[in-house]
């Protein structure tokens, strides 16, 4: 009570100020959360650090200890030093000038990478995640951190039956809270923490937090955790669909939960605190199905880029999702120190049959197990518009746009577009409310995402939609009947890159290909939170779902090769990926099943059969990432925003361009005449082995490799080679090829991506 009346009076004062002062200074008086970075990690006493942060805050609050304490949100102490606090722009700028402060940046909000968060979507993990002849005994030593919406610990996917004791190196914690106590953690979920301070500081304290604890109220975090490392659970399904066994990629690996995301999103201050703790807790891999909206800001202003830099420099691999925007250049999580995952289909689908009055049968996507008993009149929703709604508006079946007199008892044909504020499920509710008995939904983007509708419904492509509308137009009493959804296997071609999966080129650093890799992300069945929809398993789609598939694979690699660096594990995943589908044809992409390229799938579709034995790896050290940032012409201030220490670009001018980073894919934008790039590969296969280069040059370019044979005599040996790119013919835009190091057993493949600069560019200089 006291708090809210205090808050109200503060608001009133702020409004008075607003009325008096000019517009351009308006924002000076509103405080928001800033993250303050302070130098590299040292062995200082945590109490001393906290005291120092409070002193700094006190000085910008004109000596008020109370205000300073009230403004303090977090102190970071493990991976890096610094704190988060509520500050005005003025105070933030004062702090940035204080000694020891590296940088200050605002607390931005990030989003979960699920398409249409409240549509239930998805397809299950096909059985491709076997561990090829290798022991899984040490899997229980691998700890996977999930930064997400928390966990439903009672899910059968998180049972600890037959799991050995918690690893002795584990330094984490099981944080108590609402409906979550010490016994909520077990030998499977060995740690759980939650972070709400950044969220509350921005969005207020009233009724916004569902489960103020690591418990998952949304389902997203349980879904991603169980996809990565969930236990085997027999006989599960989503309302009978996709029935079978659920399991993660590495079912014996441990889970550490970092709940940073709440109903409306995840704030930077909370994300950074989670990274900080995860590094301290000794997780091996971090999975983040979260990202900024496209286009992503620069690395130094993006908490996930900064946090993952620290994770990587402490030996923690960060796996992240590319985003669900789908457009060219929309990929996010662009930093080269994480592995960024795009989404594809599998060969399983959820289909509803639709029979038209003229006998034509159509297949649509659906998760609805409701069906119609007989053929019924079918009507375009545009012909059932209500009140002030135009037929065009009603054709999208938006809320209140349908006239119940006209809609009643009919099947309605509605449209859906990406920018729609109404979800597909909501449209089925609108039709139901208007008395409709079924819905055929034309998806203008052809997403192929299945949805659990409230009436018999099916999603069809734009082309099929035109066919149905012309049938409706051609006869006096058009009818249709929609059958219940069923699970269909063997859909071809598969995998197909999903329409929504965010694409390259990298909008920030075109020299680094993103996404890095592709994994199943369409219609994935995994554990859920019964707090949402009262179900234990659910089907979802998104790069949020493909990311944890790669996390699970990374856990398998870590099991077998515990000493490998994050970049070595990443290299193994990328260089063993395939660009062929299950029929050994080049992978295609939706919509329209066009031929896909590296901007769709990165290095390709993840290949668990090969990933444990990659032969050679492209390794990268933290020093190289500093060279990389310096090659982007970062000044020391920007550099330090990322590194969190007192690094400088002085003496870090080894790279001509960012293409020189020892990345497992090779991209040369704006190629003029010719250009050379060097790489090193480390032998992790047989001691004595010879690899020969096979090159497919991108259109318009001739690529040569020197030497074109690599003779290794021992494990761990590093050999350098140089690729020369020479323009031989004009070409437009980007073109694609590959370099493959081959021996009898192994192929180590990197995509080559080249953009030839327009020939006459020089004339305009
Ligand atoms: C908390 O602990 C008690 C036993 O100590 C247990 O009965 C209870 O179910 C636990 N779990 C939750 C979520 O409160
Ligand atoms: C699977 O579960 C359903 C109900 O949930 C049950 O009817 C069926 O017998 C179970 N099948 C197996 C093989 O356990
Ligand atoms: C709905 O349609 C009926 C019949 O065409 C019409 O009489 C009525 O005014 C319409 N109502 C609205 C809200 O548009
Ligand atoms: C339906 O037919 C009419 C006239 O035959 C035509 O003008 C209209 O464009 C048609 N609409 C559709 C959706 O095919
Ligand atoms: C950077 O920090 C380290 C220790 O943290 C210190 O030894 C070194 O002198 C510092 N370098 C500069 C340029 O400030
Ligand atoms: C690349 O270009 C430079 C100068 O433009 C030239 O000296 C060199 O021989 C060229 N290399 C190749 C492989 O064409
Ligand atoms: C590798 O060994 C082969 C013979 O096995 C030899 O012909 C070739 O020159 C060697 N390549 C390099 C780069 O040393």
TrEMBL record:
Q: Which residues form the Subtilisin-like protease fibronectin type-III domain?
A: 660-754
Question: Which keywords does the record carry?
Answer: Hydrolase, Protease, Secreted, Serine protease, Signal
Q: Which GO terms describe its biological process?
A: proteolysis; response to symbiotic bacterium; response to symbiotic fungus
> Which residues catalyse the reaction?
148 (charge relay system), 220 (charge relay system), 544 (charge relay system)
Q: Where does the UniProt entry say this protein principally localizes? A: secreted
The record, for SUPFAM superfamilies, names: Subtilisin-like
Q: Where in the cell is it found?
A: Secreted
Task: Give the GO cellular component terms, alphabetically.
Answer: extracellular region
What's the domain of life for this entry? Eukaryota
Domain PA: where? Answer: 401-468
Q: Where is the Inhibitor I9 domain?
A: 33-113
MF terms from GO for this chain are: serine-type endopeptidase activity
Domain Peptidase S8/S53 intervals: 141-582
Instruction: Identify the Pfam families for this entry.
Output: fn3_6 (PF17766), Inhibitor_I9 (PF05922), PA (PF02225), Peptidase_S8 (PF00082)
- Family recorded in the similarity comment: Belongs to the peptidase S8 family.
Q: Give the protein's recorded name.
A: Uncharacterized protein
Q: Which organism is it from?
A: Acacia crassicarpa (northern wattle)
């Amino acid at each position: 009570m006291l708090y809210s009346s205090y808050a109200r009076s503060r608001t009133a004062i702020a409004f008075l100020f607003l009325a008096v002062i000019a517009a351009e200074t308006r924002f000076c008086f509103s405080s928001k959360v800033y993250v303050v970075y302070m130098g590299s990690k040292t062995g200082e006493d945590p109490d001393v650090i906290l005291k120092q942060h409070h002193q700094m805050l006190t000085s910008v609050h004109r000596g008020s200890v109370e205000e300073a304490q009230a403004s303090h949100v977090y102190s970071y102490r493990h991976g890096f030093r610094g704190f988060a606090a509520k500050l005005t722009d003025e105070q933030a700028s004062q702090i940035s000038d204080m000694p020891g402060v590296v940088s200050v940046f605002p607390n931005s909000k990030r989003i979960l990478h699920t398409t249409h968060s409240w549509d239930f979507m998805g397809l299950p993990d096909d059985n491709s995640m076997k561990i090829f002849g290798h022991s899984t005994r040490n899997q229980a030593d691998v700890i996977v951190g999930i930064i997400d919406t928390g966990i439903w610990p009672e899910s059968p996917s998180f049972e600890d039956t037959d799991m050995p004791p918690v690893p002795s190196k584990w330094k984490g914690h099981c944080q108590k809270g609402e409906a979550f106590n010490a016994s909520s953690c077990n030998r499977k979920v060995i740690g759980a923490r939650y972070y709400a301070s950044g969220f509350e500081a921005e969005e207020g304290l009233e009724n916004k937090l569902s489960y103020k604890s690591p418990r998952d109220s949304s389902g997203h975090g349980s879904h991603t955790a169980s996809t990565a490392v969930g236990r085997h659970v027999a006989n599960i399904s989503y309302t009978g669909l996709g029935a079978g066994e659920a399991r993660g990629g590495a079912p014996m690996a441990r889970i550490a939960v970092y709940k940073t995301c709440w109903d409306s999103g995840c704030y930077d201050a909370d994300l950074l605190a989670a990274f900080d703790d995860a590094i301290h807790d000794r997780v091996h891999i971090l999975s983040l199905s979260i990202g900024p909206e496209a286009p992503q800001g620069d690395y130094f202003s993006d908490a996930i880029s900064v946090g993952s830099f620290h994770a990587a420099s402490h030996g923690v691999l960060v796996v992240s999702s590319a985003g669900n925007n789908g457009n060219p250049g929309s990929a996010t999580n662009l930093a080269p120190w994480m592995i960024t995952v795009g989404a594809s289909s599998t060969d399983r689908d959820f289909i509803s049959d639709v029979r038209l009055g003229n006998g034509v049968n159509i297949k649509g996507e659906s998760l609805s197990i409701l069906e119609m008993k007989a053929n019924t009149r079918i009507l375009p929703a545009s012909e059932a518009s209500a009140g002030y709604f135009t037929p065009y508006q009603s054709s999208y079946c938006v809320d209140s746009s349908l006239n119940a007199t006209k809609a009643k008892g009919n099947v309605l044909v509605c449209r859906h577009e990406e920018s729609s504020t109404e979800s597909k499920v909501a449209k089925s509710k609108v039709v139901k409310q208007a008395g409709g008995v079924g819905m055929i939904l034309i998806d203008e983007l052809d997403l192929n995402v299945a949805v659990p509708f409230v009436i018999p419904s099916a999603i069809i492509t734009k082309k099929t939609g035109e066919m149905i509308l012309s049938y409706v137009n051609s006869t006096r009493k058009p009818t249709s009947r929609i059958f219940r959804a069923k699970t269909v296997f063997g859909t071809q071609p598969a995998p197909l890159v999903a329409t929504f999966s965010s694409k390259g080129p990298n909008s920030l650093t075109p020299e680094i290909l993103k996404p890095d890799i592709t994994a199943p992300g369409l219609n994935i069945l995994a554990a859920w939170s019964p707090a949402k929809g009262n179900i234990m398993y659910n089907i979802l789609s998104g790069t949020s779902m493909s990311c944890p598939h790669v996390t699970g694979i990374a856990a398998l690699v870590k099991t077998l090769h515990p000493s490998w660096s994050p970049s070595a594990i990443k290299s193994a995943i990328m260089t063993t990926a395939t660009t062929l589908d299950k029929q050994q044809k080049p992978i295609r992409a939706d919509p329209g099943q066009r031929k896909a390229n590296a901007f769709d799938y990165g290095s390709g579709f993840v290949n668990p059969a090969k990933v444990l034995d990659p032969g050679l790896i492209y390794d990268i050290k933290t020093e190289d990432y500093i060279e990389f940032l310096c090659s982007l012409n970062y000044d020391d201030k920007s550099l330090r925003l990322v590194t969190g220490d007192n690094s400088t670009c002085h003496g870090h001018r080894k790279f001509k361009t960012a293409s020189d980073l020892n990345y497992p894919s090779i991209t040369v934008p704006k190629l003029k005449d010719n250009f050379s790039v060097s790489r090193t590969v480390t032998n992790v296969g047989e001691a004595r082995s010879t690899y020969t280069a096979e090159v497919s040059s991108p259109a318009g370019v001739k690529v040569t490799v020197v030497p074109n044979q690599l003779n290794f005599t021992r494990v761990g040996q590093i050999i350098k080679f140089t690729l020369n790119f020479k323009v031989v013919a004009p070409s437009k835009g980007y073109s694609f090829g590959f370099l493959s190091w081959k021996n009898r057993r192994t192929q180590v493949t990197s995509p080559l991506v080249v953009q030839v600069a327009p020939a006459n560019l020089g004339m305009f200089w």
